[in-house]
Each structure stands twice: as C-alpha cells, then as structure tokens.
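Hey, quick one: can you model this chain's 3D structure?
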Amino acid sequence: MLLSGFKNKQTMETAIKINNLKKSYGDIHAVNGISLDVDRGEMFGLVGPDGAGKTTTIRILCGLMDPDEGSAEILGLNLLQNKKKIKKDIGYLSQRFSLYGDLTVDENIEFFADIHGVKNFRARRDELLAFTRLTLFRDRLADRLSGGMKQKLALACTLIHKPKIIYLDEPTTGVDPVSRRDFWKILANLMKDGITIFMTTPYLDEAERCNRVALMTEGKIISFDTPQNIKSSIDKEVIEIVCNPIRGAYKLIKEQTEYEAQMFGDRLNVVVNSWEKDRWPIKDLLTNNSIIINDIRRIPPSLENVFIHLITSTNQ
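Sure thing. Here's the predicted structure for all 316 residues.
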C-alpha cells in the first residue's frame, strides 16, 4: 500500500472537492449525493462494480457533463465556472481511450501534444517513452501493440501536457497481470512528481495500493477512508475454507445459518463474530453433509470481504 511519505492530512492541499453531487438518467440515479475530497499528490481510488456510478462521477469531474445537483472544485476553482482553465491542468484516460491505430507510437503522442497546444514536445515525448518503456516500439503502429502497451501509450498521451491531476477510468481492465503490474509501477512513480491520481477500478486488490478509497455502489459512497481503516472498520472475523464441493458448502451456509458466506473461486470466506466459537458449528454442518474440508483457517478481512459485507448489510 502506497502510504510512505504521505503527509498529515492537515498539511495537505485539496486537489478535488465535491459536495452532494447528483446525476440521474431518467429514473436511474447514477450518482446519488456523493461528497468527498482528494488531496494533492494523492492516489485516490473510487471502487465499485459495473453500474455503481464511477464513470459518471469521473466524467463530471473532467467537465464532460454537468451534474444535476451539487458542486465540485478542482484545484481551488469552481468546475462549472472554470471548465476551460481546469481542462489545461487535467488529463483523462477513459475506458475507451481513442488511439489511432494507423499512427505510430511517436505519431500518436505528437497528435495529442498538438491537441493540447504543446509546441516543444519532443523532449517530453522521449521522457514519456522511456518512462513507459516504449522507446523500442516508437515506430510501431498502435494497432500492432499489445493491450498493456496500448494502455501505456494512452497514459503517455494523457501526460504529454504535464497535467496536475490525471483521471484514470478502469485503466487496467482487460490487461494481462504482468502489464497491470508494470502500469502500477508507473503510477507509483508519477506520485513522486506530485501528480494527483484519481482512478476508478472494479479490482479490490488494486484499491489496496491507493492512499484512500471510496467504496461506491448504486450511486452512493458506503465507505471512505484508507484501505487499512476500512478493513478494520467491521468488528468481524473471516474464516477461509477450502472444500469440495464448494458450491454445495456455500449453499448450505447461506440457507441453514445466519453467517455471511462469500465465494472466491475455489475458496469460501465466511464472515463470523468469533473464529474460536463459530468455526465448530460450520465444520459440523459441512462434514455432516458430506462436504470434504481440505483446509480451514482464520484470515484478516480483505477489502473485498468488507465491501461485500457492507453491501449485504445495506440491503438487509
């Protein structure tokens, strides 16, 4: 988790401040009264499933659409009143960032430099190519790049005009694990230059790397803090069970107990009040119903455990 060198919040300047932001599409409340602030130089994660309202939020903060209600300040300026001025200081990498496949890596960066009015861009381009490890591929057409390389090129295009804030909308979705790791190394280095990073992601493991995160569902924020504080916020313990058949075990716990069961691939997580007391009735239930338990242990709550728990609690 990237918290080293992070200043006391009282000494930080605010990069983004939003208050009671709302946006609806007919009867659908995409953003339903959210408020939060992001400090300068912070890596902030807006986390939630598809349809949570993440993309709508980020598009509002980029000035691409207006909210129905609420207000936003970007770098101390009212967003609605200062869109043109603010856009000079922000970069936006959308889910469908438009690279030009028939242009080379170099030509794509030059094109976006021209859009942003960057005249002497060549030194900056060389710096970004080295930074993203794309120098060897500068003459390759964008259409011939891998998915991970396309994302790094898109990031280089986003950074060509030296923005103070970059908005990244699910930047690693569909990217292979190795490229995801490289992308996160690049983001960590951007923080050293004081750039504020506001990103959305559906991946809870990625959110663990952020300074602070907001968990969002159905247009609302249900938790907003550091990842560690969010994980510590529930007075529960988690039992991890490896068993066979896992779906049968999940169904038993869901239907015959009051425990909260969460299934992750070949592992079953059960949220309980006490490991010492609650593991015994769970073991008895499974073994009495011919479930083979290969391993059972207590684990620290993950951000994903907490998020699912909060959503479940909200819907009850």
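One thing worth noting: The longest helix spans residues 177-192.
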